[in-house]
Please model this.
Amino acid sequence: MSVRFFNSLTRAREPFVPLEEGRARMYACGPTVYNFAHIGNFRTFVFVDVLRRHLKWRGYKLLHVMNLTDVDDKIIRDARAAGLPLREFTEKYVRHFWEDADALGIERPEVAPRATDHIPEMVELIGRLLRCGCAYHSDGSTYFRIASFPRYGALSGDKLAGNVAGASERVEADEYEKDDARDFVLWKRTQPGEPTWDSTLGPGRPGWHIECSAMAMKYLGESFDIHCGGVDLMFPHHENEIAQSEGATGRPFAKYWLHAEHLLVNGRKMSKREGNYYTLRDLLERGYSARAVRYVLAAVPYRKPLNFTLEGVEAAERRLKRLNETVRRLREAQTVAGTTADDVTTITQLRAAFGAALDDDLNTAEALAAVAQLETTVNVALTRGALAESFKTAALAAFDDAQATLGILDPPEEALLDAAIEALIAARLEARKAKDFARADAIRAQLAGQGIVLEDGKDGTRWRRA
Ligand SMILES: [Zn+2]
Model:
């Protein structure tokens, strides 16, 4: 059975057939680095992580590119408000993004290019669009001519019908709504107080959409396999990426488009005003482990809306504690010679079911159901006593599959030694005594990221593995 994905472009579930046998080239839209990423953002990044892990686990040689958007309207607005140069402002949030991603067990993509390091590639691509009549200058800016690309709207489909305006109407902003589908900006003329680059297009800066087209094609080629991102990026961002890229090359851009659905918190759209807005740090400060947050974000298949609740994270903490305890007992279990053929058959079947669930458009819910059955089977065997070596080997291999693709278990090689934990707790105590609460909080977050929960009491600080 092969890997299958729901392709947003064709609105059908299709077998994954890469352009080059055995290789998977994929692009994921990365963070806009003007703030801490919130858990809605991380729902998408965890989905992309499960996708990349599963492709590797299925034996594909993977090239995964994820950009960092470090220049756009919002970044410029907030960097100005902070009184910082663009690079200095974004640097901090790039660093925080990787810290959060690491804590969540998100593997680093093979290439993570920054937009401001690729201005010449963007200018070159816009030059191609000008030469083929897909773009035009106006008032010092350069726009994409939607009328030059008859397939415009193919990704968003019917939702866009009738909204594509005539060629003379333009939209300047990086983000806009479906009823504003007009010629969009590729290069923005220089404005007072904004970062600006000299180019053959005149002084200015890139629009947001061209960034991804230029970086994707630089590292993956003009045509590649998978493009993914959050469903909110489908229009206008991904629609514009297709138009710019295919307009310039005349070749198909990405073959498969995968979109992660929205995340809600307590059934409502996440918003700071509603008080249901969480970054990863907010959750770590409440004592939750990053691994439990990852579990919650990964457990709902990516094409279903995910309702995030703190009760859900607490349930995940309990679930993972039991699961890790089972794996630990299995690892430490004594074995005897001989076989228990029936049990090994069950394990083999569950392993196959697990892989088949992920092959099926990354059905993580079914994959986790297989893990739960595996856990039950192992616990029954452990209770019964002496394990056959063949059973133990098969069961550990099955848990290894779950770890390789879902990344939810405590990897034994990563487990912090108790002495190292005690040393960090002592350092945190020192920091608190010195009223350096930022450092104390950072240490707590660091430990939480590794599944260590601290409990401050009058007798000092106790810790436990989450
Ligand atoms: Zn993008």
Notes: The chain is about 45% helix and 15% strand.
